[in-house]
Amino acid sequence: MLWSDPENKPPKELRDAQAMMRRAGLVLALAMVVAMFAVGMR
């Protein structure tokens, strides 16, 4: 990577979409843990 290379930053829409997907994945993982806990309690 040279100092003269253009910056490789994704556009704002892509960064926002990535952040949203990361949050959705986190919520989904948390929901799975809660579901497994609820099933285990029965």
UniProtKB/TrEMBL annotation:
Pfam families: MmpB. It comes from the Bacteria. Keywords: Membrane, Transmembrane, Transmembrane helix. InterPro entries: MmpB-like. The chain crosses the membrane at residues 20-39. NCBIfam families: morpho_MmpB (NF047320). This is Uncharacterized protein. It comes from Streptomyces gelaticus.
